[in-house]
Amino acid sequence: MSNLIELNARTHEQKSQNKNLRKEGNIPAVVYGKDFGSRPVSVGEKALLLAIKENGHAILNASIPEIGSKPVVIQNIQRDALTNKIIHVDFHQLNMNASMDSMVTIHFVGEPAGVKAGGSLQTELYEIETRCMPDNLLSSFEVDISGMNIGDSLLVSDLELHEGIEVLTEPTAVIIRVAPQGQTAEETTEETTA
What we know:
Layout: E1 4-9, H1 15-23, E2 26-33, E3 37-44, H2 45-55, E4 60-64, E5 68-79, E6 86-93, E7 100-109, H3 113-116, E8 120-123, E9 127-132, E10 140-144, E11 153-155, E12 166-167, E13 174-179, H4 185-193
Parallel strand pairs: 1-4, 2-6, 7-10
Antiparallel strand pairs: 1-3, 2-3, 4-5, 5-6, 7-9, 8-13, 9-12, 11-13
């Protein structure tokens, strides 16, 4: 399990209290758990930003007042529309013995041979949906696309993931393709389906 994150008790949901928390460098939050329902808490802004920077999908070991240590993930982050600062966070307790669904980001590595030859790279999917046990949870994985030529497509079914990870995204969905220069994604799709 990843980082330890300290959650502090918070008694009221009043705007003035939340504003004061933010001034002190804390962010209002709620932690949801099967064992204890929902609890209003706060989390240090620096600790939260560090956890997000290291891996926004990581399992965190949260110290929850009056509950103890529980495995959690960040379920939702609310940001201020103008400043983009985090104003509220939802944590969700994990059952380490049950599978969970999550979105996994795809990072492309290398420059396709087809692009070097004048083709155009067209990305259709930047993430896929997976199901696995929490211990197998991925936030992202790399796909080497340097061997792709003009006319090649990479489908979801072409991905090689670790054992224990089930892909829920449609297997025939195109992730990325190298099209002839000047051809739009719609024209490429029409050619593929024709």
